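Weekly modeling sync, notes
Attendees: S.R. (lead), two postdocs, one rotation student

Agenda item 3: backlog of single-chain predictions. S.R. asked that every request posted to the team notebook include the full sequence so nobody has to chase files. The rotation student volunteered to paste the first one in as an example of the format we agreed on. Action items at the bottom.

Example entry:
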Amino acid sequence: MNIPNHLPNVTHLIHAYRVAPWRVQRQWIGNALLLVVVFAMVAALYLNVTSRTAIAGREIQDLTDAIAISRQVSSDMQTQLAGLTSAASMEARAREMGYRPVEPDELEYLVVPGYVAPKAVDLSSSAETQLNVLTIPPEYNQSLLDWMDDRLVSARRFQ
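Predicted structure, as returned to the notebook:
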């Protein structure tokens, strides 16, 4: 019986694995360890991304709280300013400083030559400023379809 050349190599490999079964075990252990390392790397990457996201979320919450506090402080200051500049408060402070209301006989008016008082602006609508449909030329009341219809009708008349 003729044995092909490549067959002794195959039998030699099979015999080598039967003699040293620890090689197969080492390959399985190596593959398992590689799988564990890959899973650990993926888990570390996931943990890194998750922790950065959580930190960013917490910073956003802190900044939102700071904005709310700043708005509250601003509102409080606006309320204090409104109280300090109210008519009653201003009058009380003016009296404390020695001011008093002016008497009519103490007033003195100055006439400024060439000064013209500004005219009042009338924002009410009047009948003159409103456009009426009757005052708008008919060209502006015609739709595109009406215009095209007129052109087609006039073109048929000339044929």
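Discussion: group reviewed the output briefly. The longest helix spans residues 22-84.
Action items: rotation student to repeat for the remaining queue; S.R. to check formatting next week.
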